[in-house]
C-alpha cells in the first residue's frame, strides 16, 4: 500500500512563499508520476502541478504558472511544491498524488489518472 503524507501547509499572508512536501512510503518513487491537486472551499478538486517520473517536463494550471514550482527528490522519496506570491484564491487543501508509470516524460494532469492520494494539507492565504 502506497502512503503519501503531505506537510508544510499553514496560514500565510498574501505574497508568502511556503513549500509543501509529499513523502512517499515507497522504496523509490523513481518510476512514479507525481502531482499536486487542490480543493478550495465549496469547490471541486482541481489540478495544480505535475511532474513525470523522469522529470523531463512539468505541467501547471494557468493560475499558478510562474508562481509555483513542482520538483522531486527521488533519493528522499519526496515531491515538493514551492509556492510563491500566494494569493487569497490559493486557499485550499492541497493533495499529493502518485501513479506508477515506468519511465515516462509525460506529466499526468487529470485526477482520474492517479492511483494513490495523500490526506491533504491546508493552506490558508489571508489578504
Description of the structure:
The protein is mostly beta strands and 127 residues long. 0% of the residues lie in helices and 46% in strands. It contains no helices and 11 strands. It has strands spanning 4-7, 11-13, 19-24, 32-39, 46-51, 59-60, 68-73, 78-83, 92-100, 116-117, 121-126. Strands 2, 4, 5, 6, 9, 10 and 11 form a 7-stranded mixed beta sheet that branches. Strands 1-3-8-7 form a 4-stranded antiparallel beta sheet, with no helix packed on it. The chain is globular, with a radius of gyration of 13 Å. The model has no long low-confidence stretch (mean pLDDT 96).
Largest sheet: 7 strands, mixed
The total count of strands amounts to 11
Tell me which oligomeric state these chains represent: single chain
- Fraction of helical residues: under 10%
Amino acid at each position: 500500500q502506497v502512503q503519501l503524507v503531505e506537510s508544510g501547509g499553514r496560514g500565510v499572508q498574501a505574497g508568502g512563499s511556503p513549500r509543501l512536501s509529499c513523502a512517499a512510503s515507497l522504496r523509490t518513487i523513481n518510476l512514479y508520476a507525481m502531482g499536486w491537486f487542490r480543493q478550495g472551499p465549496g469547490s471541486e478538486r482541481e489540478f495544480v502541478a505535475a511532474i513525470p517520473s523522469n522529470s523531463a517536463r512539468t505541467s501547471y494550471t494557468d493560475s499558478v504558472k510562474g508562481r509555483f514550482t513542482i520538483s522531486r527528490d527521488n533519493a528522499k522519496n519526496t515531491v515538493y511544491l514551492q509556492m510563491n506570491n500566494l494569493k487569497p484564491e490559493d486557499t485550499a487543501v492541497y493533495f499529493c498524488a502518485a501513479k506508477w508509470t515506468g519511465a515516462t516524460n509525460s506529466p499526468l494532469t487529470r485526477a482520474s489518472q492517479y492511483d494513490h492520494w495523500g490526506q491533504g494539507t491546508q493552506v490558508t492565504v489571508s489578504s
